[in-house]
Amino acid sequence: MTAPMPPPGAPLPAFARALADILVALSGARALPKGQQLHGHLLKAGHLPATASTHTLFGHHLITLYARCALPDLSHRAFLDLPSRPSPAAWSSLISSFSQNGLPASAFDAFRRMLAAGVPATDRNIPSAAKAIAAAKTSSRPTLAPHALHGLAAKTPFAGDVFVGSAVIDMYAKCGHLADARRLFDEMPERNVVSWSALICGYADAGMHPEALGIFRLALEEAVVVNDFTVSSIIRVCAAATLFELGAQVHARAIKTWLDVSPFVGSSLVSLYSKCGLVECAYRVFSEVPEKNLGIWNAVLIASAQHGHTSAAFERFMEMQSAGFQPNHITFLCLLTACSHAGFVDEGKRYFTLMKEYGIEPQSEHYAAMVDLLGRVGRIKEAFDLIDSMPMEPPESVWGALLMACRMYKDADTAAIAAQRLFQTGSRSSGAHMLLSSTYAAAGRHADAALARKAMRDAGIQKETGLSWLEAAGKVHTFVSNCRRHQRSEEIYRVLEKVSEKMEAAGYVADTSAVVKDVDGDEKKATVRYHSERLAIGLGLLIVPEGVPIRVMKNLRVCDDCHNAIKYLTKCTGRVVVLRDNRRFHIFEDGVCSCGDFW
């Protein structure tokens, strides 16, 4: 016989309290089958659906149970079983369920319905609404939504609450309103680690590396106990800017505070060491992280791909599957990149097909990787046919990959078609114009090359400046081609001239085929001799100790001549040069490059 429920306002009897406690425990353990069994018992016993005269605690806990088990639709159904006027706590749980399960539009809609029902905003539902706004796509997010929510929060008794303030900062940062995020951060009477982390991560995601580093230093000065999310964000900054020495210092701090065991910190460290050319260190960090997540598996896969360790990438993928991890779209992008860097067409096609077996539809970035793979091995017509078969409109990245292949194989006619289609996407990339121009030049069509450059000027598009940089002794040295602004420029040019003499004696001949201007041979040689990466290497010869690799980063693809020249340079000097361009890593040693001249 079912025990009767108490009248409204009466305390919950012991048996009902016990059932509620069990439901809370099952929710915390995410024990879905047992939770559903208890849900069924409550329905049969008449405790659900809740009415105005019965206690609503069970319904509230069921919303949370299904939310934690990633079943927001069932959370919503449990919410609908509540009385006609759900409590503020029930509304908060529903909004949180939608928000934490990737349904930002539903979360924000529930928040608005709550306000329309006369239920006030609280310190529980404002953070969930902020998370929903931050997660919404820009196209579907009301323009003034972030500021409207901040204004609403400011009118509540929770305006000075640290959790509410931190959530609003995170929302502003993820929506790109960094000035508003910083203003609120500076005005907060109290901050917590979430406040600091949100601002650091916002600056990091926006590429505002100096600002992110500045906030991190300020946090350390104020003795803020940072968490793994904060450390992961700042390591990502160091990785993006290839600040190896600073990144290593943050790594040391993470070790001292036991944060290095976090897979989030681990994945950022893998990326840091990989992008700084220390792939073996990246592999070691990966192996030492005790509990891995999909993010760190993807990080080690892309590290293997960028360094040309294709077989290692394939082996890691099998290990990942054996460990019980399901690949996602990023995993397959890493694998396709590895195939592209090695020219493994059959393997690339196999992984591209395998995506659908995992229920993953190839996106534009996967098609771009396949076009890059086919183009690198000269199968330009097949790459063009693949583009025509795409279920979506090919974006700039896809046509750019085809254009790069045309440049490699001097296919000026297809390059002209690819460039035209690329420009139709609305792209204002200077790289596309320069690729078309250099393709014409390589094919000996200098008049067409000049017209391509003129079209770029007429469109008001400026050529992207090629930059190379080298970090040494805690300072980053940046160069552009034929630059003489560095304080040691005279020494740099002298050492390069001496090395050039040895290189030419060893058989080096400058490749000037990509020079777009129709000028004489000597002027063409002068054009390529002092590209930015060579100047950075020249400084490295002066200041990087013998036995230590010279590590140089470049924002554009290294040209054919510089690639060949650096091989000769390492053979003539005995130095090792690690060069990262915008395509992959190149490790030059004793006249050989790790890419096998395939990049």
TrEMBL record:
Matches recorded under Pfam families: DYW_deaminase (PF14432), E_motif (PF20431), PPR (PF01535), PPR_2 (PF13041)
UniProt entry tagged with the keyword Hydrolase: no
Ranges occupied by PPR repeats: 87-121, 161-195, 293-327, 328-362
PROSITE patterns membership: PPR (PS51375)
InterPro entries, sorted: DYW_dom, E_motif, PPR_At4g14850-like_plant, PPR_rpt, TPR-like_helical_dom_sf
Keyword RNA-binding: no
Coiled coil: none
Gene3D superfamilies named in the record: Tetratricopeptide repeat domain (1.25.40.10)
GO molecular function terms attached to this record: RNA binding; zinc ion binding
Residue stretches making up the DYW domain: 507-599
Keywords: Repeat, Transit peptide
Protein name: DYW domain-containing protein
Species: Panicum virgatum
